[in-house]
Amino acid sequence: MSGLVRAMGGMLRTFESFEAKYDIFIDALLSDAPKACLSVKPYKLVLMTRITRKSTFLLFAAAMIVVSTGLGFGQANRMPLLQDIQLPQQTYSGVPAATPLVQKTGSVTPTLSSVSTIKTQYAALANIVIPGYSGVLVESLDGKQVLESNATGAFNPASNVKVATAYAVLKTFGPEFRFPTNVYTDGAIDQTTGTLNGNLYVSGRDPVFGFEHGVAIANELNKLGIHSIHGDLIVTDNFAMNYSSSAARSGETLFADLDASKRSPAATRVWLNYLTNSGQTGRVGGIPGVTFTGALYVQGIPSNLNLLFTHESAPLRDIIKATLCYSNNFMAERLGDMLGGPYAVARIVQLNAGVQPQEFSIQTASGLGINRVTPNAMMKLLRALRGDLARNKMTFADIMPVAGIDDGTLEGRFAVDSSRGSVVGKTGTLGHTDSGVSALSGEINTREGKFLFVIFNEHGSVARFRAFQNYFVSLVQGQLGGAVPILYNPVSLDARLAHSRFSYPTSNYRGNE
């Protein structure tokens, strides 16, 4: 018995030493998961049950020791968005390297208080009870304050950080930017045999590159008269496919995807859906595919290659719409990497939205982990983003989910007839970090016009926070004449992301968009 106790004690100490890393991993799985488990596309989230109690671990450890110490377990099949978000380990140590102003939670968070001081001229809003440690701010478009509570406090915004990432990327690259995936060769095409004698090279950083795009590349190779490749497939170390952070795994997926005889049924289904969503049904003859005599390698691209063509992703505006609708962590991190990581995102926000560093400090581009933003700073960011969108003849609805209409994290919220389509915003959820975090910010439409709002809740039940947010937003709309749906023509995310195309070095465009 004493040996068992010692073994369990050792396992518990090991468990505790990795507890912080475990919490970050679980938060990555649970952040902003929609109520319904959807898996039609890889960016659709999957809910999982959190198991954190040490008692559960001890029971499991005891059973394992008593039954056997040598059992092996097979790895369960992964759902599409069980993402391997690999972030630098030191960023979760409490003193992140990326953003110097991010410190340990206790050093940047004001003293917690269960009493909220509400400033408002609306009697119905003055006495509401705001749960947890929270900051709330509601303003008209011209800056008049409707309600304020703890707006200068620093809170964890969770996935509201993705709004900052979207703003920074759009400001830097523009809404019509497309991610290029270049296809090269070091060989020559034998048209008589349909053979490419040489290697095929693929290089790109497209965060939404998937099955359908791999088959589309095979189809484009077939158009060039290539049906077999006497050589290897080589991808670069930044290549990603189907939201995988592993270049090797992504390359293996592409290797099988290009070959019709090795292509999975799932890939075929995605390809057929892509043809429908892109309007190309019936315009692709046969089943696209190429075969290889060689193998897959991950390595750099030589300088003396011949560019065959370039696959261009859907426009950035549509990629951001998918990222924010489903609060996809992988896509947000890839977008942030385009700028140099979270520190670069923070600097763009600070410089262009008039936000002070102490008001806006982030260590991830997705909102995972410990980040600190004040409601005042978030409001300034919303205003800056709204202004930039307007200059491009866009609105929040072009990049954010419209509640009750768009798929994703807001599809089941504000969905009754009276409020459906009246809220456009971004959710944020961390089940364990900062003892539970839920955020919601964006724009509401009422009979008295549009208003911007920020709600940061932490240190409490996520379910309770969401219920409060739903109640509060509806109450505010009621004080402003009632909810009014915005003018919005919904387009499915599958259709948005199907707007990819090919370009060739000898012409501006070839193929079907």
Description:
It is a single chain. The chain is α+β, with helices and mostly antiparallel strands and 513 residues long. 34% of the residues lie in helices and 17% in strands. The protein is built from 15 helices and 19 strands. A 7-stranded mixed beta sheet has the order 11-9-7-4-12-18-19, covered by helices on one side. A 6-stranded antiparallel beta sheet has the order 1-3-2-17-16-15, sandwiched between helices. The termini are far apart. Mean pLDDT is 84; it is low at 4-9, 11-20, 35-114 and 507-513.
Task: Summarize the structure in short.
The protein is an alpha+beta fold and 513 residues long. The chain is 34% helix and 17% strand.
Keywords:
19 strands; disordered C terminus; six-stranded antiparallel β-sheet; 513 residues; alpha+beta; seven-stranded mixed β-sheet; 34% helix
Write the layout of secondary structure elements.
Elements: H1 2-17, H2 19-30, H3 54-67, H4 105-108, E1 119-120, H5 123-126, E2 133-140, E3 145-149, H6 161-173, E4 180-185, E5 188-190, E6 195-197, E7 200-204, H7 211-223, E8 228-229, E9 233-235, H8 247-258, H9 265-277, E10 291-292, E11 296-298, E12 306-312, H10 316-326, H11 329-339, H12 342-352, E13 360-361, E14 372-373, H13 375-391, E15 423-430, E16 437-446, E17 449-458, H14 462-479, H15 493-497, E18 501-504, E19 507-510
Parallel strand pairs: 6-8, 7-9, 8-10, 9-11
Antiparallel strand pairs: 1-3, 2-3, 2-17, 4-7, 4-12, 5-6, 12-18, 13-14, 15-16, 16-17, 18-19
Question: First CA to last CA: what distance?
Answer: 69 Å
Rg measurement, Å: 25 Å
Largest sheet entry: 7 strands, mixed
Please list the strands of the largest sheet in the order they lie side by side.
11-9-7-4-12-18-19
Shape: elongated
Work out the helicity level. 25-40%
